[in-house]
């Protein structure tokens, strides 16, 4: 008589049947959500970004870089690096990647910042959600694409959904951390002037928590960029499409071109968002001569 040490446990059938039930009951609603996001959010944003002349985008990036970093040479390097992406013939796909990433980041901001604020105010909610955030951050990114495809089929909408789930946790965590780190003395001083809860949040807590929140936005942006590239496997167009084609056709050159473009994009966005997350003293250091 054989003895099985491990008790067989599987929840795959439960999850699959649950998602299939959702699709059967709410398929029309999911289709409406997908159509709404494409028609009123993603297609207009991508069309707007594509309509901007590349030189104007480069000028805008240069000005934003200089405003954030106070470094003329570094701003010029960023502009030249983005110009190099265009020289490789990847400008259009870079804009496609940026548009999906921007939509994902906007949704993350709308969801993540309020949840982070609520978690900072409620220890119970924080204890309930922290394990969920741990799971979200440790799950392999490919797993998120499965339910997204089952619910919305392939395309940009499931790519955005998977990206939001994957990139959301750091923003929630760092928003909560930033709000909690505001000094009690500062809050007491605000209360002594008759501040309401809303005014305390808007004029005291959020401004003082800005470096932490910006660090969360930085992390969310980097994760969103990584996920958008991987999401090309489920129909999201952009730079990831070239990497996937390079992999399937064993065309290293094509994949390397897209990989270099992703690296340039990541460095530029990372440096700019990091700079905007600095406090006043750190930013004043940037104004010193190069």
Automatic annotation (TrEMBL):
The chain crosses the membrane at residues 47-65, 72-91, 97-120, 141-169, 221-240, 252-273. InterPro entries: MetI-like, MetI-like_sf. Residues 94-273 form the ABC transmembrane type-1 domain. CDD domains: TM_PBP2. GO terms for cellular component: ATP-binding cassette (ABC) transporter complex. Its main location: membrane. The keyword Lipoprotein does not apply. Coiled coil: none annotated. GO terms for molecular function: amine transmembrane transporter activity; carnitine transmembrane transporter activity. It is found in: Cell membrane. Pfam families: BPD_transp_1. Keywords: Cell membrane, Membrane, Transmembrane, Transmembrane helix, Transport. It is a multi-pass membrane protein. GO terms for biological process: choline transport; glycine betaine transport. Belongs to the binding-protein-dependent transport system permease family. This is L-proline glycine betaine ABC transport system permease protein ProW. The gene is proW.
């Amino acid at each position: 008589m054989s003895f099985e040490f491990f008790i067989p446990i599987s929840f795959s059938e439960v999850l699959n049947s649950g998602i299939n039930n959702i699709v059967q009951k709410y398929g029309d609603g999911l289709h409406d959500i997908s159509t709404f996001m494409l028609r009123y959010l993603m297609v207009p944003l991508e069309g707007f970004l594509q309509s901007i002349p590349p030189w104007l985008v480069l000028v805008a990036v240069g000005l934003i870089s200089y405003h954030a970093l106070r470094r003329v040479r570094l701003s010029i390097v960023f502009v030249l690096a983005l110009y190099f992406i265009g020289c490789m013939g990847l400008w259009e796909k870079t804009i496609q990647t940026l548009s999906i990433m921007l939509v994902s980041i906007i949704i993350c901001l709308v969801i993540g910042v309020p949840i982070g604020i609520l978690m900072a105010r409620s220890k119970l909610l924080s204890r309930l959600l922290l394990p969920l955030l741990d799971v979200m951050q440790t799950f392999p990114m490919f797993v998120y694409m499965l339910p997204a495809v089952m619910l919305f089929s392939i395309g940009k909408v499931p790519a955005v959904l998977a990206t939001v789930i994957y990139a959301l946790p750091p923003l929630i965590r760092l928003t909560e951390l930033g709000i909690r780190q505001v000094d009690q003395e500062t809050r007491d001083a605000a209360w002594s002037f008759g501040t309401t809860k809303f005014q305390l949040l808007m004029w005291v807590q959020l401004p003082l928590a800005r470096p932490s929140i910006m660090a969360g936005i930085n992390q969310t942006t980097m994760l969103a960029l990584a996920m958008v590239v991987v999401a090309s496997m489920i129909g999201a167009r952009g730079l990831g499409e070239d990497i996937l084609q390079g992999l399937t056709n064993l065309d290293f050159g094509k994949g390397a071109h897209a990989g270099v473009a992703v690296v340039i994009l990541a460095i530029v966005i990372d440096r700019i968002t990091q700079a905007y997350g600095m406090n006043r003293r750190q930013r004043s250091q940037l104004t010193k001569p190069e």
